[in-house]
Amino acid sequence: MSHRHLFLKSGFLRAPHGLGIGRYVCQLQRVTLKFCKSHGTSMGMRHFIEHNLIHYAKENPGIVVYVKPRRHRHPVIVAEYLNGGRQWMDVANYNQEDIIKWMELLRTQIHDSASLRLRKLWHTEFPSIQGPWTPFFFKDPMINLVHFPNKEHGAAVKLTPTATEQLIQLFKAQQLQDNTANDSQDTERVETT
């Protein structure tokens, strides 16, 4: 059994402050592509740089892309985000399509969420002093003394008519108005003849 997860940073999932309130802000700030000009494991990275990098940079003007050649090293993608987080990926022997997919993933995610150990499954910044909500909060305590099944308490709660019922009522009222208008026109015709 592995205990690798114990050494991960712990925290809570949270969205960046203000993201999506005014407009979308891409959280990826900088991408550094490190590769070797002659090493065989960098072939996919070289193809990406030759054929797709200019198109990627034009589509994403808010992301700074650095290209750093290194001799006799595996290719690496280093992504830096607005919150200060860095994600490092070894892309040795990846083909061009795989690198395109990983670059798109790095662009669309907020940070390296895989390296974050969750402290709890749920979290709130503003905890309630009254305790968690339950469906029985605003129920009458006399329900505890009722013997079930009970028709009164077992009936569905229906406070207002649904939109479909309102449309049916409007349609029937319109038909009644049309019928009365037609009847009055028929009686006027009969009286005039």
UniProtKB/TrEMBL annotation:
<dbReference type="InterPro" id="IPR007741">
    <property type="entry name" value="Ribosomal_mL43/mS25/NADH_DH"/>
</dbReference>
<dbReference type="Pfam" id="PF05047">
    <property type="entry name" value="L51_S25_CI-B8"/>
</dbReference>
<comment type="similarity">
    <text>Belongs to the mitochondrion-specific ribosomal protein mL43 family.</text>
</comment>
<keyword id="KW-0687">Ribonucleoprotein</keyword>
<keyword id="KW-0689">Ribosomal protein</keyword>
<feature type="domain" description="Ribosomal protein/NADH dehydrogenase">
    <location>
        <begin position="37"/>
        <end position="110"/>
    </location>
</feature>
<dbReference type="GO" id="GO:0003735">
    <property type="term" value="F:structural constituent of ribosome"/>
</dbReference>
<dbReference type="InterPro" id="IPR036249">
    <property type="entry name" value="Thioredoxin-like_sf"/>
</dbReference>
<keyword id="KW-0496">Mitochondrion</keyword>
<dbReference type="GO" id="GO:0005762">
    <property type="term" value="C:mitochondrial large ribosomal subunit"/>
</dbReference>
<dbReference type="GO" id="GO:0032543">
    <property type="term" value="P:mitochondrial translation"/>
</dbReference>
<protein>
    <recommendedName>
        <fullName>Large ribosomal subunit protein mL43</fullName>
    </recommendedName>
</protein>
<dbReference type="InterPro" id="IPR039927">
    <property type="entry name" value="Ribosomal_mL43"/>
</dbReference>
